[in-house]
Amino acid sequence: MKTPLSKIYTFLFYTGLFFFSFNEYYGISFLGEFKTESGALFFLLGFLLLIVESIAQKKISIPYKSTLFQLLVFFLLWCFTTTLLNGNTVFSNYFKHTSGFKRFLRQYFSFLLSCVVFFLLYWNVICKMKVSDILLKIRKVFLLSLIVAFVYGFLETLVVIFGFGTFYPVLKLFSYFPFLEVSLHSAGRISSIAYEPPFLAIYLITISGWMFSYILTHKSPFKFLPAFAVLFLTYFSGSRTGLVVVVIQLFVFCTFLYKDPRFKSYIVKSLFGFGLVFCFLLLLNGEKMVKSISEKADSLDFKKNLTKNVSNQSRFGMQYAAFHVFLENPIIGVGFGQQAYHIRTHYPSWATRNNYEFELLYKNKNERSFPPGYNIYTRLLAETGLAGIALFLMLLYFSLREARLLLKKAKGDEKILLIIILISLIGLYINWLQIDTFRMYGVWLNLAVLIRLRYKPLNLRDE
Q1: Cβ atoms of residues 258 and 264 within 8 Å
Q2: Where along the chain do its domains lie?
Q3: Counting beta carbons within 10 angstroms of the beta carbon of residue 195, is it exposed (0 to 12), middle (13 to 18) or buried (19 or more)?
Q4: How many angstroms separate the Cα of 92 from the Cα of each of 86, 103, 140, 344, 385?
Q5: What is the mean pLDDT of the chain?
Q6: What is the pTM of this model?
Q7: How far apart are CA 462 and CA 11, in angstroms?
Q8: What is the mean pLDDT of residues 397-426?
Q9: Residue 167 confidence (pLDDT)
Q10: What is the per-residue pLDDT for 252?
C-alpha cells in the first residue's frame, strides 16, 4: 500500500523523467554539473522524501542481491580506492583554480548522484510497480515530453533550416514553458528543448526504444508517429553521433520486427511512409533539403573531417591524450576525476593546431570549466586503469547479457520492455564513446527496470 510520501516521490519521479532533457535555461549555479538539469531537481527532491519515508518506516529497498548492482558498488569502491592510491599526485594537482582533491570530490559526488541517489529513487518506485504499469506509464511520460520537443523542434526547423521567419514569434512562446529559454543556433542545427544539439541527441537516444515500441503494441496508424518524431528531430539536430546511434537502434528494432511474421509488412509500410514525408519536404523546399542531405553525408566522412573539423580535432585529440595517460599508468590510473591534470602534456599537435578551443578553453588557466574527455571509456582507462575499466565493462556486458537471456523466455509486456531496454542500452553505451559523464539518466533507469524484471517483488503478481 502506497503511503502519502511514496505517492509524492512517485509523482516527482515521473515529473523528473518528463523534464530530464529540458536544460535550455540559465540554471542554478551551485548545483555544478547539474545546474541546468531540470529533471535532477525533481529526482533530488523525490530522493529526500524517500529518505524521510525510509527513516519513518526503518526500511528502504536496495537490490543488493543483483549482480548488476554489486558490480556498480564494486566499481564505485574502486574509483575511491584508486584515488587514495594516487593520493600524492591528487593533492598536488592544481589547474583552473581547482585542486585535484576538490576536483575528485565534485566528480565523485556527481557520480554518486547519478548512479546511486537517483538510481535508488528509480528502484524504489519501479520495484512497487507491475510490468504493465512500468511500460505504459514511463512510455506515456516520454511521449508527452516528445510531443513538446517535436512541436518546438518542428517550428525551429521551419525557422532555422527552411528560413520561415514568420514562425519565430510562435516559437518564442516556448520561453514561457518551464525550464526553457528559446535560442536559435546559427549553424543550421536545432536543439529543441535541450541546450545544444548533442544534448538533444542524448534525449532522443534515451527515448527512442520506448517510442519505437508503440509499433509493437498499438493497432492505430498513428503508432508510427512517435518513431517519426524521433527520426525527424535526430536528422535536423545535426548531431552526427545522434544520427548514427539512432539509426543503429532503429536497425536493432527492425531485426525484432522482421523475426515476427506479424510485423514484416510494417518495415515496408514504414519505408513507404518516410518516403512520402521526404517527398513532401522536397516539395516544400527541395533545394534546402538536398543541401541538408549533402551536408549530413559530408559530416559523416570521418577521414575527411578528422583534422578539418575543430570539434573532431578536439574530440579525438582528447581521447588520444587520455590513452597516453593510461599507458603511463596502466593498472590503477591517475585517480578518479584527475584526467584533466595529466592530459595537458599529451595533446597532439594535429589537434591543437589552428584550434581555438584549446587556446580559449582547454589550456586557458583562467577559464574555470574543465576540458571534456569526450569518451567515458578512455577517461576511465586514464583515471581508473585496467582494473576500473574492467569492472565498468563487466557492468555493461552483464546488463546486455541479462536483457538477452530474459528476452528468450519473456512474453507480453515483459518482452516489449526487454526489447526497449536492449535498444536503449545499446544506444546509450555507444553514445558513451563521445561523452565522458555519468549523467546519463537513461542508463540507470533501464538498469533499475532490468533488475526489477529479474527480481520480481513477492508482493506483486505480473499478469
Answers
A1: yes
A2: 1-60
A3: middle
A4: 10, 12, 50, 15, 20
A5: 87
A6: 0.90
A7: 22
A8: 95
A9: 92
A10: 93
